[in-house]
Amino acid sequence: MARDKRLFGNIRRLPSGRYQCRFTDPDGRYVTAPHTFAARIDAEAWLADRRREIDTGLYSTPGVKPSKITFGDYAATWLANRHVAGRPIKARTRDHYRAILDAHLLPEFVPGRWRQSRRRTFVTGTPPPWPTGPPCAPTPTACCGPS
After folding, report:
1. Whole-angstrom Cα distance, residue 103 to residue 98?
2. Is the pTM of this model over 0.85?
3. What's the confidence (pLDDT) of residue 140?
4. Three state DSSP letters for the chain
5. Distance between CA 147 and CA 144 in Å, rounded?
6. Above 90 in pLDDT, residue 127?
7. 31: which strand partners?
8. Quick one: which of 25, 30, 133, 147 has the fewest CB in 10 Å?
């Protein structure tokens, strides 16, 4: 009985008895597994994982490092796309989150500063200085009182 043709990638048995697999990535290039597999089922699982990554948009071309993103850029994207229960957050909530980011988080995540603060914490045991000012309240009403 012949095996069914694979829909994604291919697996071949090497003279050593191990299995090698490869597939065509979304850019049309052949990608070979970084290692061989002792059992065919392991090679099939590796191919299934790559297929799942491609289908969900999580696949990245081997050898290509993802671009670095700053905390500020990430926070801006997160805030613009923030949803609760499937709906975008309200303007007042967005403004409140933006105020917290601007006042407390973005100043702490200046490139290089956070790495130095963490290194000092772990090497010397002295924590980084805390920001001065009133503590952050959970809502604008709790912080500022009723309008």
Report:
1. 9
2. no
3. 57
4. CCCCCCCCCEEEECCCCCEEEEEECCCCCEEECCCCECCHHHHHHHHHHHHHHHHHCCCCCCCCCCCCCCHHHHHHHHHHCCEECCEECCHHHHHHHHHHHHHHHCCCCCCCHHHHHHHHHHHHCCCCCCCCCCCCCCCHHHHHCCC
5. 8
6. no
7. 23
8. 147
